[in-house]
Amino acid sequence: MADVFVSRSLEEIRFWSRIMKEHSFFIRLGFRCEDTQLINEANYFYRTFETIEQRALSFSEETDPATIGAFNQEVHTAVSHIWVFKRKVLGLILTCQLPGGTNFPLLVDHISREAKYFRNRLEELNQGKLEPLPDAIIDENVFFLRIMADHAKFIGHLLDPSERKLVEQARDFSHDFDDLLYQARDLDSMRPQSQTAPLLTQFLDQNKVSVKSLKDFKKTARDLIEQCKIKSIIHPLLADHVFREAERFLEIIEMFERSLTGTASRTPIIHH
User: What is the Cα Rg of the chain in Å?
Assistant: First the structure.
């Protein structure tokens, strides 16, 4: 029987190492041509996470858990380093040391939050434990709702201003997810009294509807960008990147729904 620790570790690393690789590419696109040191660092992280992604794909669910534990630790180190790089870049932008670059400060903060999330997941896995389900539901939603709100803002700012209808749709999604995030933070501050099955079920239902709508919007935008049917400065890979993250959030919500109804378990991961 496949080891739960191994399968969950590989699933997380395969998804997030690709995300980290693409972050390196996107942040490099936003540097000025004279920022050669920063460009070289971004290229280094691109190669690093491309290698990690390939290694993760070479393992199987039958791989020895000890091997995967060591791999997780290696990946954790790489993620810690890219987090430091992203925060350094954010500092340079906020102190006006990269005038003329095209990386939004919020974008750099956004991708550093994702690196921190990935690093925390690796720590959870290697320690062999997960948060209790009610805590995980609130924490994961607080994290991903903010990510989705950010995506809507980035899309709105990177579309050509003449794409008025799409810009307006992106703005509407930004407001919607800001409101959902405020609600999630209210539920968070009411813990543990707020962690009843009816409240958590309604919380997931409401978020799921909005995430599905945003995912469909992102898919449409991605397809239109790939077909060169709309005016924007959005790289096609970025359009696909944000679509995959919405898909990921939807999968997590559905996993929580199954866990709440007792059709799936969220037990601690024990490995040796």
Answer: 19
In the chain, what are the domain boundaries? 1-129, 131-271
Task: Please give the Cα distance from 104 to 108 (Å, whole number).
Answer: 7
- Average pLDDT rounded to a whole number, residues 12-25: 98
Phi and psi at 268, nearest 5°, equal -60, 145
| 1-129 maps to CATH 1.10.3720.10 | no
| Residue 159, Ramachandran bin (φ over 0: left; ψ between -120 and 50: alpha; else beta) | beta
For the chain, give the percent of residues with pLDDT over 90.
93
Alpha carbon separation from 204 to 89, 123, 138, 250 (Å, rounded): 35, 26, 9, 10
State the pLDDT at residue 270.
Answer: 41
What are the residue ranges of helices labelled H in 30-132?
Answer: 36-58, 65-94, 105-127
Q: Does the pLDDT value for residue 2 go beyond 50?
A: yes
Residue type, 161: P
The predicted-structure confidence for 203-262, as pLDDT tens digits, reads as follows 999 999 999 999 999 999 999 999 999 999 999 999 999 999 999 999 999 999 999 988
Looking from the CA of 94 toward its CB, the CA atoms found within 13 Å total 11
Placement of tokens 């959870």 in the chain: 124
**C-alpha 16: how far from chain center:** 7
Cα gap 272→268, rounded to integer Å: 13
